[in-house]
Amino acid sequence: MKNITVIGAGAWGTALAAAARRAGCTTRLYARENDVAAAINEGRGNPVFLKGIDLPDGIAASSDLGEAVQGAEAVILVVPAQFLRATAEDLAKILPARIPVILAAKGIEQGSLALMSEIAEEALPQNPIAVLSGPSFAAEVARSLPVALTLASADEALGRQLIDALAGPMFRLYQSKDIVGAEIGGAVKNVLAIACGIVEGRGLGDNARAALITRGLAEMVRLGRAKGATTETMMGLAGLGDLVLTCNAMQSRNFSFGHALGQGKTPEEVLSERVAVTEGVASAVSVVDLAEKLSVDMPICATVHAIIHEGRDIDTAIHMLMERPLTFE
Fold it and tell me: How far apart are the first and last CA of the chain?
């Protein structure tokens, strides 16, 4: 399994294409933008989403989806979560059965409240599904800095085959069978990273951020368990690991978004200045809706949703969190 196609040439998709190429794979990258595909093919990297980062030679980029997946032995699907269904439906028309699809988007679909794997299983019923998640900034992966991620697949043999194909000296993969846990961790941590960014932007201190991370992890575990995930997954790379990373660095689009909110900008102002998608903005809606559906208490995520989508004043929201009834941990 050495012919890999990555669908989605944003920062993360481009970084994963670079990792696959360094692992010795024949790598194709589907880019919706013609100028991005042209730049990659001309050896100029990805000037739109990964400016200033050199990519390994040999990545073949294309703006034709059919051409990109031709001959693929595995596909890595890296489009924003809210667009995954449409892309998967397009892919179903051209991708042969039994070709595995690795999902690398982090989110929960609005409206349906479906996980990415649930969407893929519906749109691509003949293709086995795996999930790749964990603490990873695209720029660092693209530069071949060390990273460790979780690759989850219900089929243990397939999971091992995918890991053997993609793992490299600086790209370490741990195997899991808990697809739901890997996805819940990736979706919830984006919402919590916004909360931590708000704390930092507001100057509320390291104590407050540590409390948010810890109590946010408790919310993540509750939602994951309600969906059938294991606590072990939540405490691993795809849960705690990803949460710690995104809640502590301005490289995180979600943390930096929250930071800007904390400093007084409106959500609309921040988003208007960005090219890449900030997944936690949409995920705040679907995470809260899913929590309500499953009767899971997630006050931090609900507060982030209220600030972004309901216009709640940040200081008021913070006081409401701090004044909740005292209880056991």
Answer: 47
